[in-house]
Amino acid sequence: EDLERVAEIEKKIFSMPWSREGFAESLEQDYTLYLTAVQDGGIIGYCGMSQAFEEAEITNVAVEEKSRGQGTAEKMLRELFRRGEEKGISRYILEVRFGNAAARRLYAKLGFEDVGVRKGFYERPAEDAVIMVKDLYKVYRIGENRVRALNGVSFSINRGEFCAIVGTSGSGKSTLLNMLAGLEKPTKGEIIIGGEHMETKNENQLVRFRREHIGFIFQSFNLMGTMNAVENVALPLTFQGVSKKERTKRAKKMVHMVGLDKYWDHKPNQMSGGQQQRVGVARALVVNPEIIFADEPTGNLDSNTSREIMNLMQSVVREQKRTLIMVTHDNTLAGFADKIIRIVDGKIVDMVDNTENANAVSLEKAQIDQTDKKGEL
Fold first, then answer.
1. Global pTM?
2. Cα(76)–Cα(73) distance, integer angstroms
C-alpha cells in the first residue's frame, strides 16, 4: 500500500513544472542522480532517476513512515547513495518540496549544500572520489570464442579509502587491478583517476602517470637480491631523477616507518618473508603516491605475518591518508578494508561499506599494542 501511494506521489512530482525542468536539466549531466523529497499523508518519499539508473532499468523509491523519525530517512538516503555509487553516480540534485528544520539538518549532515537556485534546492557532489570506473568491459578473444573478463563494472573509491576487491581465481579481480593501474587497456568503458582518463592515455603517458602517482605492493615482493633494504626502497626514486643523497634519506625514513631500523643493511635473503614485504610496503610509499595497488600482498606469508602486514597497511591508510586498493581471495584479510567489492565472473555482485568492522579491527590492534607496552614497562 505504501508503494502504491508513493507511486501516486511520483506522478504528482513529475507533473509539476519545477520538477520537469530540474529532471530535464539533470539528464543533461552524465551520471547525475536527481532526487525529489516529498511528504504526503504521513509518508516521506525519495524518488530518484538518472541517466545511469534509467539505462540499468532501475527506479529508486524509498518510503518512510513519518513516525519513525529522521533515522530511517538517513538510512534510506545512505542506501540510495550506495546504489548510486555502484552505478558511478558523481552528482546528486535534491529538490525538497516539503521540509522542516530537522530535514535541513539531515541534508547538511549528508553533505547537501543549498545552491541558491530556489528555495529547497540542494546539491551533493559524490564523495571525494579519487577513482571512478564507469561501465568497464574487457573482452579477450581465444580462438573463435570471446571471454568477458570484465562485464560492465562501475564503482568509485574515495580518497584515503582502503578498498578490497575480493574474488576467486578467474573472477576478473586481477584483470580489474591491471585496468586500474593502466597495465591493460579496457575494451570499453572509462577509468578516471584523479580526474584523468586512463583509457585514453598512450603507453608513455601511462608510464609517467604510474611513476608519479602510484605505488605497487607485490605478492612475491620483487626485491632486488643484490641490494639491501634501503637500496631496494630507494630504487623507484632513481627513475624520478632524485639525487642519491636525497634517495637514501627518504628511503631510511620509510624503512624506519615500517619498523625495520635493525635491518636496513640486510639483503632479501637475510630477511624473513614478513620483513621482505615490509620493505615492499616502504618501497611503495617512498614515491609519495596518491594510490597504492596491492596484488595478494600476503599470498606468500603465514597467517600471523599476514595479519601484521595487514595492520601495517591499514595504519598507512589511516595515518597518511593514502588510497589503497588490494586484490585478494581471502575474506578474512578483506575485513581490514573500509570497502569490500566482491566480483564473480567479471561482474560486481556485492559492494559493502565495511568501515565499522575495519575500525573495530584497528581499535583491537591499538588495545593489543597498549597492552604490550604495559607488559614491557
1. 0.65
2. 5
